[in-house]
């Protein structure tokens, strides 16, 4: 089991297989994070780019930047 904190309440998180939930896929997760990067819990982030190609290295799904430089 995993535990997560929402506000001041603890909620029990359940591990699920994304293969069993067709509407939740990589694109959907990417859209959710893009619309609200704060859900990652990594501080104040802004979205710089989506699906950025890097020659010789492939594609970067999301490029996020810390607001504090």
Structure description:
- The protein is 14% helix and 42% strand.
- The protein has 69 residues and is mostly beta strands.
- The strands form two sheets. It has a two-stranded antiparallel ribbon. Strands 3-4 form a two-stranded antiparallel ribbon.
- The radius of gyration is 15 Å and the shape is flat.
- The N and C termini lie far apart (37 Å).
- The model has no long low-confidence stretch (mean pLDDT 85).
Helices and strands, with pairings:
Blueprint: E1 2-6, E2 9-13, H1 26-35, E3 45-54, E4 58-66
Antiparallel strand pairs: 1-2, 3-4
Total strand segments: 4
Q: Per DSSP, what share of the residues sits in E-state strands of 2 or more residues?
A: 35-45%
State the helicity in percent bands: 10-25%
State the major sheet.
2 strands, antiparallel
Question: How would you describe the shape?
Answer: flat
Task: From the alpha carbons, calculate the radius of gyration and give it in angstroms.
Answer: 15 Å
Give the number of helices.
Answer: 1
Q: What is the string of helix and strand elements?
A: EEHEE
Order of strands in the sheet with most strands: 1-2
Average pLDDT, all residues: 85
- Total of domains: 1
Enumerate the spans where pLDDT stays under 50 for 5 or more consecutive residues: none
N/C terminus separation? 37 Å
Structural class: mainly beta
